[in-house]
């Protein structure tokens, strides 16, 4: 079937923030051939390209996007013993649900993280003590310079905290991801929220299904309902030198931090925003900070991208002024 490239497509409905203007060109790709053809189209017209998954971690400006938005709809999940391979366009949580049913361990703590499989590898998503890269075996990506598919083994993916080679190198478009899972896993329940959940329930957790249920319950309680416009954590947790942390600890004794195993320490941005900045529940018109999680910016109705950005700017300046810590955005701006 010929590729169906649309013009002037509103992007807001394709994002979980529900804001933003039009894409000059827009296409859904369901095969690698579609993807290659789309890239040639953009090249012929000298257009920039933006790769869209399920729009759960982006903020589109009111001006929209003047290039070609390629929505990745590459599907398919295959099981080969404990190796699971999924198309970049698969919904992340559906893959998690599936592998839990197959009794495969490794990604259950990442239950209910929004987005697609492609996004999960580009972003190296993380939650409750687990990161996607812990179980990623390899990633297949289209290199738009050579137009060839290339396989990247985990060590070649340059994974870091919300980082990967696919995020840094815009010539690489993820088409599928393989995960090496295990049939004999152990529950990972050291993360504060998860530990508390099971302590309260007074049960010793043993099955994958129980963990998935716990994570789903914790996230549902803490995160806004899917109908509310949000892009998850808006800022990254900042990484600072231990010396800076020690100084902050004197000023803010309750400060939450996670040692990185080197001379740096990851601070909880949510804690800083909540306890130092008192940002929970603050609203500027329809743009606001979620009342139960200071890291989550919310579009309560008709907020524009500019209003959300202005609120984020205000929060960043406030934390910088009070702690000298710079918060970096996790959400991708378009
Ligand atoms: N906290 C506060 N006030 C708040 C929110 C949290 O004091 O308003 C405290 C909590 O009590 C906790 C600490 O801050 O001790 C950390 O909070 P939480 O466990 O909710 O985690 P987070 O750092 O805010 C990160 C990820 C999330 C992931 C959770 C759970 C980042 C930027 N965010 O959030 O990922 O789900 O941990 O593991 O790393 C995402 O990236 O979009 C995302 C949702």
Automatic annotation (TrEMBL):
KW Acyltransferase (keyword) present: no
Record-listed E.C. numbers: 1.3.1.98
Gene3D superfamilies named among the record's database cross-references: 3.30.465.10, UDP-N-acetylenolpyruvoylglucosamine reductase, C-terminal domain, Uridine Diphospho-n-acetylenolpyruvylglucosamine Reductase, domain 2
Active site: 162, 233 (proton donor), 330
Reactions that this protein is recorded to catalyse: UDP-N-acetyl-alpha-D-muramate + NADP(+) = UDP-N-acetyl-3-O-(1-carboxyvinyl)-alpha-D-glucosamine + NADPH + H(+)
One cellular-component annotation, GO: cytosol
GO annotation, biological process: cell division; cell wall organization; peptidoglycan biosynthetic process; regulation of cell shape
Domain FAD-binding PCMH-type: 18-184
PANTHER family reported for this sequence: UDP-N-ACETYLENOLPYRUVOYLGLUCOSAMINE REDUCTASE
Protein name in the entry: UDP-N-acetylenolpyruvoylglucosamine reductase
Species name: Candidatus Yonathbacteria bacterium RIFCSPHIGHO2_02_FULL_44_14
Lineage, broadest ranks: Bacteria, Candidatus Yonathiibacteriota
Gene from which this protein is expressed: murB
